[in-house]
Recover the amino acids of this structure.
């Protein structure tokens, strides 16, 4: 469980670093069209955050399913 | 099914509304740039205006523009040439003297259009004169009058320089904190219940709510950093609210570490409940009290005015409040699913 959590945090930090790097490389892009891509980035971060939590729950459920199988 | 999960349906409906209205309602037309920004009295100046969300070609000959000094003294533009929807060329014939008792002054630019409404660029233009003559200047500047300004389009979000479209983050970044706070409040409620009745179910609920709240807090911190990069210039400005929320989230992170440190279920639950109350007691001063005591870049803290009528107008409120409720309900949904999985897991372990 803890290992899963650590890997989740790793993935999250990597994602943020990636986005940060992408933005530094293309600051003009982020500032174009009234900086609308800042809003897009914010929405994407929230989306990926929720997806990561979904993956965490999915793994938990898989373990439970395996346990049920073993018990049978 | 509807009776049980009406609040989940409500969450989806409110969030769909938040995304559509929050993204589709246009910004109010504004002035993005003016050049030149420094004018000399006694000269004819051609000024180029760059608009934002403006429709100058639709308004054409009905466009009017003024330079406005303190005390409602105005100078009307003598000619306005429409280049395209976003570009205007104005000509001002500046009188030899300013209605001012100093050599330098600042003025605002006001542009009025029946399509876009009246737009003000406050104090954005510097004026200079070689010699001061207040009486003559006042006389020269009192010829023109500014009257019958048009109202702009009704359904718009405020136009703010620096922020521009990122004002929409108000519906995505800010409600995350709302949701986090509500989740933590309910979580601490269940922790108190656990300590009174030693009901393991209350501890499980507190855990799920804290987990969901923590996720929302982390997302709030990251989205805030992105927004800060393009509004304040850096991901992390060591702003007091940024720092204090980071501290609060670290305190909450320790809650999960604490739980992992105990094997005995009862001991774990009891300590976690006590710690949760402590964490909540630290959270409130950290995010609500300390940022208000010192200067902060965040609105509503320190010397900064709260989101006033310029930042959060009635059109924004129509999206902002449903967004707050929608994201909060989504947080509770996430907590509920995670609680139910925990419950199943415990049942399996007991069996």
């Amino acid at each position: 469980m803890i290992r899963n959590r650590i890997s989740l945090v790793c993935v999250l930090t990597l994602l943020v670093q990636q986005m940060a790097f992408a933005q530094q490389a293309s600051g003009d892009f982020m500032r174009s069209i009234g900086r609308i891509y800042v809003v897009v980035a914010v929405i994407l971060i929230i989306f990926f955050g929720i997806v990561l939590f979904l993956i965490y729950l999915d793994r938990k459920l898989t373990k439970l399913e395996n346990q049920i199988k073993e018990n049978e | 099914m509807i009776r049980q999960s009406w609040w989940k349906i409500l969450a989806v409906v409110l969030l769909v509304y938040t995304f559509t209205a929050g993204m589709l309602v246009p910004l109010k037309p504004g002035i993005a740039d003016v050049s030149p920004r420094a004018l000399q009295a006694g000269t004819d100046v051609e000024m180029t205006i760059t608009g934002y969300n403006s429709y100058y070609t639709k308004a054409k000959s009905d466009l009017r523009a003024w330079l406005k000094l303190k005390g409602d003294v105005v100078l009307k533009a003598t000619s306005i040439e429409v280049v395209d929807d976003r570009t205007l060329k104005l000509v001002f014939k500046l009188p030899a003297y300013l209605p001012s008792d100093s050599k330098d002054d600042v003025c605002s630019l006001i542009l009025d259009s029946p399509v876009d409404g009246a737009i003000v660029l406050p104090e954005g233009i510097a004026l200079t004169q070689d010699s001061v003559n207040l009486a003559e200047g006042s006389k020269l500047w009192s010829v023109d009058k500014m009257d019958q300004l048009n109202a702009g389009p009704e359904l718009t979000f405020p136009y703010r320089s620096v922020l521009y479209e990122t004002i929409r983050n108000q519906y995505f970044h800010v409600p995350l904190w709302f949701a986090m706070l509500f989740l933590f409040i309910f979580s601490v409620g269940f922790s108190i219940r656990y300590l009174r009745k030693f009901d393991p179910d209350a501890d499980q609920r507190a855990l799920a709510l804290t987990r969901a709240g923590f996720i929302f807090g982390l997302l709030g911190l990251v989205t805030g950093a992105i927004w800060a990069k393009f509004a304040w210039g850096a991901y992390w400005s060591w702003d007091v609210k940024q720092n204090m929320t980071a501290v609060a989230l670290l305190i909450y992170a320790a809650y999960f570490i604490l739980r992992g440190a105990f094997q005995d279920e009862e001991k774990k639950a009891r300590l976690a409940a006590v710690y949760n109350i402590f964490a909540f007691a630290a959270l409130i001063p950290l995010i609500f009290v300390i940022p208000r005591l010192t200067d902060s870049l965040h609105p509503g803290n320190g010397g900064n005015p709260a989101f006033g009528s310029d930042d959060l107008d009635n059109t924004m409120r129509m999206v902002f409040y449903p967004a707050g409720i929608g994201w909060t309900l989504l947080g509770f949904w996430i907590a509920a699913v995670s609680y139910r999985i925990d419950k199943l897991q415990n049942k399996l372990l007991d069996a």
User: Anything to note?
Assistant: The CA atoms of residues 14 and 326 of chain B lie 5 Å apart.
